[in-house]
Amino acid sequence: MKRAGPARPGWRLAALLLLACPGPAAAFWTGVEASIANVDADWAFDAETREAQSSLVSLQIEEKTETGLRVGISLGYFDTRLVADDPSPTLKFDGHFVGLYLNRLVGIGEHVEVYGQFNLSYHSGQDSLVGERFDIDWTEVGVEFGASLRFAHYRITPYAVYTDIDGDISNLADVDVFERDEPVSGGIHLDYFVEPTAFVRLSLQGGGSVGGYLNFVRRY
């Protein structure tokens, strides 16, 4: 019998969006962010390169230190389809991830800012087929840099990110390790401020990882 997968993330997304809105929950943190994303990237295995098509839902909460460094944690759900040509099977994984990030923003003049961010996360999930089960685990490390220009309620931020992953897929008989085929990506963040401390962000990305992100952010 095929194992039932985790519940779909619809109710999770609703809860995350509520947390991103003003209210008592936000008072305990200097920043909170809910996001949804669809991204594709190539993963390199020993014998082949396979495309990973991923959907993600996540929540981030952070605290700003006296030096201006923001320290945050992220929790989320992922749904990854690992596409392959015959004879390798196409696998579909559902799982969760947890991460830590550090962000430092520096203002240059009234309308220009630059930032750097370090991310570390761990992902774990499963794919169950008839008669066989596969487990997936990987660690992901990322470094991102960008520069932004703000005018009125809008902000535009070109950025570049380097992402390295180290993971494996295993079943009862075998373990197959993988990494990112191309670690460098670039893109642009487009922000619209609905309040001085809250904005909606659309991010478009290309290069080693191709896709888009929609973020709902409140940051003090």
Largest sheet: 11 strands, antiparallel
Oligomeric nature of the chains: single chain
- Fraction of residues in β-strands: over 45%
Report the strand count: 11
Can you give a write-up of this model?
This protein has 220 residues and is mainly beta. It contains 1 helix and 11 strands. The chain has one helix spanning 10-20, and strands spanning 31-45, 49-64, 69-83, 91-108, 112-129, 132-151, 154-170, 175-180, 184-195, 198-207, 209-219. Strands 1, 2, 3, 4, 5, 6, 7, 8, 9, 10 and 11 form an 11-stranded antiparallel sheet that branches. Strand 2 (49-64) and strand 3 form a beta hairpin. The N and C termini lie far apart (50 Å). Residues 1-11 and 17-27 have low confidence and may be disordered.
Features:
mainly beta, disordered N terminus, eleven-stranded antiparallel beta sheet, single chain
Fold blueprint:
Blueprint: H1 10-20, E1 31-45, E2 49-64, E3 69-83, E4 91-108, E5 112-129, E6 132-151, E7 154-170, E8 175-180, E9 184-195, E10 198-207, E11 209-219
Antiparallel strand pairs: 1-2, 1-8, 1-11, 2-3, 3-4, 4-5, 5-6, 6-7, 7-8, 7-9, 9-10, 10-11
